[in-house]
Amino acid sequence: MRKERADALARLGATSVAVAGLRDIVTAEQSAEAALARVAGAAAEAAPQADLVSISVLAQRVWHTATHTGAAALPLDAEQFSADRGPALESVRAHRPVRARTGGEARRWPEFDAAAARAGVRAALSVPLWLEIGDGDPLPGALTCYSYTDDAFDPFDEGLLNLYALVAGHAVADARRRRLARDAAAQFERAVASRAEIEQAKGALMALHGCSADEAFARLVEQSQRNNIRVHVLARRFLGSLGGSGDRG
Questions:
Q1: Do the Cβ atoms of 142 and 96 come closer than 8 Å?
Q2: 39-50: per-residue pLDDT in tens?
Q3: Do residues 164 and 125 touch, judged by C-beta distance below 8 A?
Q4: Which CATH number goes with the domain that contains 189?
Q5: How many structural domains are present in the chain?
Q6: Spatial separation of the C-alpha atoms in residues 117 and 146, rounded to whole Å
Q7: Distance between CA atoms of 172 and 75, rounded to whole angstroms?
Q8: Cross-strand pairs, 146
Q9: Residue pLDDT, tens place only, 170-209
């Protein structure tokens, strides 16, 4: 079914709303996968002519679809990955938006063109999307909108979607940094608590055996190695055996 193209002001407004919604990605407690799903979903708002949206990522030299708004996008992505060419891959390699229309790409991307025709997809718009979703450098990716309408996308849409993808990439990166900071803080708190239990256990051993702090710690290490358990776990159990408050789980 043909969709009527909204005027430029309406499309700009839709993109603004989609960009504003990306703030939730930064503050929400969610995984990278969930964040990408929200980026794809909001992209459908930024590009109202899109019937399907997918995010493709190149990780360890292998392309895969990280998320999508409809399973019909999967074979379209897969054909591009298999042939190593298509609008999504071209947008990443050329560092720019790429538009395609079914029937007009048989020479450039015959595999994609045939797959799009089979799926009834008439147009596609891909923009580069760099993602910080794991350890190491940002991963190259593409945000692709597919439409069942011939003239779904124009140069104005290219600019809007490219801007949206740029902001989305930063939002995902900020969300990841926030998760890492939160995890680091929790790890530090656990380390402080473990150290406190070890110090308490050392003090108890010094009182029981009249030994020095180093000798008490050596006893803990020896028992830890002998029983194949961590020193702070051993310290907690020891304190619990004395009727203290160290055994908390």
A1: no
A2: 898 888 888 889
A3: no
A4: 1.10.10.10
A5: 2
A6: 12
A7: 26
A8: 52, 124
A9: 777 766 666 655 555 666 566 666 778 888 888 888 888 8
